[in-house]
Design the sequence.
C-alpha cells in the first residue's frame, strides 16, 4: 500500500511540474523532437535551469529525455548555469536534448563555489550510451569559474556536442580542487562525442587548458573541430584542441596561439595511454618553456597501451627551451607516422624538426621542410 501511494504521489507531482513548465515555455510539450519545448527568452532559460537544478534528485530528473529548441537569438545576458554535479553525484545534471537551431545565447556567468561552470554546468549521466545532446548552438560573452570551466559545458558525461561554437572568453579564476580544467566547448568530458565544433574565444587558466576540451577521457572522440582562439595556462598543460587527451582527436585544426610553461601542444598538451591524434593540422604559433610540440608534447609511459600520432601536419612556429619538436616534444612509447613539419622549430636543448627527444617508440615515414627547419 505504501509503495502504491508513493507511486501515485510521484505521478501527481510529475504531472503538476510538467504542466506548469508547459504553460511557461513558449510552446511544445518536450516529448519528441518535433514537439520540443520552444525557448526564446532569458526567462525560459532561467526556468529550464530552475527545473533541472531543483529536480527530485533521488527519484526523478525533470529534463531526462526531453527536447528543447531555441527559436531566436537570446541577447539578454544569461547569468545562470543549467544543471549541477550536486557534490559529485549526477542526478541534477541536464539530461535532455537541446537544439540551438543555429541561434546564439549571450552569457555572462561568474561562479567560484560550484565545481562545474558553463551555460550547462553538468550534462548527462553515468551509463553505457549517449544520453544527452547539445547541438547547433553558439554562445557569446564570458564564463569565469574556479575549477571545471567551459563555454558550453562544465562537466560532460555521455554527451553528444555537435555543431556548436564558442565565442566566449573562458577563464579559470582560482582552483579549489586540483586537477582543474578549462575549455572553449567543454572543460571536462567522459564518454562524450564532440563533432564539428569551433572555439573562437580566449581560453586561459592555471592548468589543463584546451580550445575544445580541457580534458577528454578514454572514451571521448573529438572529430572535425577547429580552434582559432588563444589558449594559455600558467602552470602546465595547454593544447589547441584538448589540454589533456585520453581518447581520440581526428581531423582537427588549430590556428590559435598556444602558450604556457610546460606541456604546450598545437593539438593536445598531453597524451595518455592509447590516445590517438589522426589527420590533424596545426598552423598556430606554439610557445612554452619545456616539452613543446606542434601536434603534441608528451605521452605517458605505457608499453601495453602506446599512443599514436599519424597523418598530421604542422606549419606553425614552435618555440621552447628543451624537448621541442615540430610534431612531438618528447617520445618514450608509441608511434609517430606519416607526419610532415614545414614550420620553424626553435629550441636550446633536445629539439628536432619531428621529435624533440626520443627515448623509445617509433618514428616512420615522417618528413620536414629543410629550408624552414634545419635540424642540427
Sequence:
Amino acid at each position: 500500500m505504501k509503495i502504491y501511494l508513493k507511486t501515485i504521489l510521484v505521478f501527481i507531482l510529475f504531472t503538476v511540474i510538467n504542466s506548469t513548465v508547459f504553460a511557461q515555455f513558449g510552446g511544445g510539450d518536450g516529448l519528441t523532437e518535433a514537439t520540443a519545448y520552444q525557448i526564446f527568452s532569458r526567462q525560459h532559460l532561467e526556468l529550464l535551469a530552475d527545473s533541472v537544478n531543483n529536480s527530485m534528485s533521488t527519484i526523478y530528473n525533470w529534463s531526462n529525455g526531453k527536447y528543447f529548441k531555441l527559436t531566436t537569438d537570446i541577447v539578454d545576458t544569461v547569468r545562470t548555469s543549467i544543471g549541477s554535479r550536486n557534490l559529485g553525484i549526477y542526478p541534477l545534471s541536464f539530461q535532455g536534448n537541446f537544439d540551438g537551431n543555429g541561434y546564439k545565447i549571450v552569457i555572462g556567468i561568474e561562479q567560484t563555489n560550484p565545481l562545474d561552470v558553463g551555460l550547462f554546468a553538468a550534462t548527462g549521466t553515468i551509463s553505457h550510451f549517449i544520453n544527452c545532446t547539445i547541438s547547433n548552438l553558439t554562445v557569446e560573452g564570458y564564463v569565469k569559474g574556479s575549477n571545471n570551466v567551459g563555454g558550453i559545458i562544465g562537466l560532460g558525461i555521455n554527451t553528444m556536442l555537435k555543431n556548436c561554437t564558442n565565442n566566449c572568453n573562458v577563464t579559470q579564476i582560482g582552483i579549489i580542487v586540483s586537477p582543474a580544467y578549462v575549455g572553449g566547448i567543454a572543460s571536462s568530458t567522459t564518454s562524450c562525442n564532440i563533432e564539428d565544433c569551433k572555439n573562437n574565444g580566449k581560453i586561459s587558466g592555471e592548468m589543463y587548458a584546451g580550445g575544445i576540451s580541457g580534458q577528454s577521457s578514454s572514451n571521448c572522440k573529438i572529430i572535425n573541430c577547429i580552434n582559432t582562439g588563444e589558449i594559455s595556462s600558467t602552470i602546465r598543460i595547454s593544447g589547441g584542441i584538448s589540454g589533456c587527451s585520453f581518447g581520440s582527436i581526428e581531423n582537427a585544426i588549430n590556428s590559435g596561439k598556444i602558450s604556457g610553461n610546460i606541456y604546450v601542444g598545437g593539438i593536445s598538451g598531453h597524451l595518455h595511454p592509447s590516445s590517438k591524434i589522426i589527420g590533424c593540422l596545426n598552423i598556430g604559433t606554439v610557445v612554452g618553456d619545456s616539452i613543446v610540440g606542434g601536434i603534441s608534447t608528451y605521452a605517458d609511459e605505457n608499453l601495453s597501451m602506446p599512443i599514436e600520432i599519424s597523418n598530421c601536419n604542422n606549419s606553425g612556429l614552435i618555440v621552447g627551451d628543451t624537448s621541442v619538436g615540430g610534431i612531438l616534444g618528447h617520445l618514450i612509447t608509441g608511434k609517430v607516422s606519416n607526419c610532415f613539419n614545414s614550420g620553424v622549430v626553435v629550441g636550446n636543448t633536445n629539439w628536432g624538426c619531428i621529435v624533440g627527444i626520443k627515448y623509445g617508440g617509433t618514428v616512420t615515414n615522417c618528413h620536414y621542410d629543410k629550408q624552414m627547419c634545419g635540424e642540427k
The chain has two domains: 26-234+244-253, 257-376. The domain at 26-234+244-253 is CATH 2.160.20.110 (Pectate Lyase C-like).
